[in-house]
Amino acid sequence: MATSYLSRIFGSSPVKPIQSHMEKVIQCVSQLKPFFKAIISNDWSVAENLQETIRQFENEADDLKKEIRLHLPTGIFMPVSRIDLLEMLRIQDLVANKAKDIAGLMLGRRMELPDEISGDMITFVDRCVDATAQARNAINELDELIETGFRGAEVELVQSMIKKLDSIENETDEIQIRLRARLFGLEDRLPAVQVMFLYQVIDWIGEIADLSQRVGSRLEYLLAR
Predict the structure, then answer these.
(1) Cβ neighbours of residue 60 closer than 8 Å, sequence gap 6 or more
(2) Are 39 and 113 spatial neighbours (Cβ–Cβ below 8 Å)?
(3) What mean pLDDT do residues 77-101 have?
(4) Comparing 79 with 29, which gets the higher pLDDT?
(5) Could you tell me the CA-to-CA distances from 149 to 7, 54, 80, 152, 154 in Å, in that order?
(6) Based on the number of CB atoms within 10 Å of its own CB, is 48 exposed (0-12), middle (13-18) or buried (19 or more)?
(7) What's the predicted TM-score (pTM) here?
(8) For residue 66, which of 155, 127, 128, 6 has the smallest C-alpha distance?
(9) For helices 115-139 and 153-186, what crossing angle results, to 10°?
(10) pLDDT digit string (tens) for 96-110?
(11) Which of 63, 104, 138, 210 is deepest in the core (most CB within 10 A)?
């Protein structure tokens, strides 16, 4: 990654690189929507192309993470703690990693989704991506929070965004419970190995929403401080 690019984003704000990384994360995670539609349609060529796109975005996010860790300012006059920013960066990166793991597992095993759960699975993926997008929206308010000294209407705005993120994550929990229950009802009709990996995929998709909520929680922690 070009040093000049890093200089530009660090020069404008200590939180700009974190926001840039989160933008790369949502680009990665968003590809899961068409990926799962391709899986349901058994269009493995499209799924393979999308898995490669997810992998590329995750690699770019990982490269940016490493550069941020090396170049994030350490001055005592930083408006936000370096430790807090690095922890937020770590959680954001886990979101992209999880999207890559999901696509890699499903493509590698040529996993097919039973018709009985495919509709709920698409809804589940969509809402988990929504959680990541909402986390991104909240992170994008960090500049304004710093400018206002973490006070006033901007704090209320971010708190409302985090509340919405929590609501989305709660909704994904409900969908996940429903999916697992329906899969349980299909266990006698499906190969045991397929069932095992389907449960794993469901759990990993849910982790995308959980991790996105943790990004919001770290931002909420900054508000409290």
Answers:
(1) 24
(2) yes
(3) 90
(4) 29
(5) 24, 37, 10, 9, 9
(6) middle
(7) 0.91
(8) 6
(9) 160
(10) 999 999 999 999 999
(11) 138
CA dist 206 and 198 (Å) reads: 12
- Judge contact between 112 and 42, C-beta under 8 A: yes
The CA angle 63-66-67, to the nearest 5 degrees, is 90
CA distance 61 to 25: 6
Q: Which domains does the chain have, with CATH numbers?
A: 3-224 (1.20.58.220)
CA distances from 116 to 8, 179, 184, 189, 196 (A): 50, 9, 11, 12, 17
Q: What is the pLDDT of residues 177-197, one digit of tens each?
A: 999 999 999 999 999 999 999
